[in-house]
Design brief:
Mean pLDDT: 81
Strand content: 25-35%
Radius of gyration: 17 Å
Number of strands: 9
Helix content: 10-25%
CATH architecture: Roll
Number of helices: 2
Shape: globular
């Protein structure tokens, strides 16, 4: 029996990635409907700043040329969720900014209040160079807690094909 898995004609990896993004959309949609976050919930959302359809201020792209993490907690406004992404108002060093982020550019979603995290591959051009990642520093209380080491409540999907 061979250890090599056969190539699938069904795009399972794409289907799972789409389902994970739907979770992010549904959660943000619930926050939009409620007009705010319930209880102690808050979100760290990581996304590719050069992803197709991402619209953020130029100074943020220059500061975070590859990837950044925003915090949705106390200071956010005008959250609007669409089927393909969301937009939100945030403040960076007391300067308001509007961010438009397609779900396809999102690579991580964390709710530290309940130790819930999703990580997935961004759907971006392969030509974008990986230059590292750091937090955006939008006006929020504290950086995220350390990642859960035991992997509980963390869903990470990384499909690789052996050829």
């Amino acid at each position: 029996m061979s250890d090599q898995a056969p190539d699938s004609l069904i795009p399972y990896d794409e289907i799972v990635q789409e389902a994970l993004r739907a979770v992010v959309g549904r959660v943000l949609g619930e926050v939009e409907k409620a007009g705010g976050l319930p209880g102690d919930h808050h979100f760290y959302i990581t996304f590719k700043t050069q992803g197709q359809g991402v619209d953020i201020p130029r100074h943020l792209v220059e500061r975070f040329p590859d990837e950044m993490t925003i915090v949705i907690q106390n200071r956010f406004w005008d959250l609007k969720v669409r089927p393909d992404g969301f937009e939100v108002g945030l403040s960076f060093n007391q300067v308001p900014a509007r961010l438009v982020i397609p779900f396809a550019a999102v690579t991580g979603f964390v709710d530290p209040a309940v130790n819930f995290a999703l990580q997935f591959q961004a759907q971006v051009d392969d030509a974008i160079e990986d230059t590292g990642h750091s937090f955006a520093g939008n006006d929020a209380p504290a950086p995220p807690s350390a990642p859960v080491e035991d992997g509980s409540n963390v869903v990470s999907v990384d499909f690789t094909r052996k050829k």
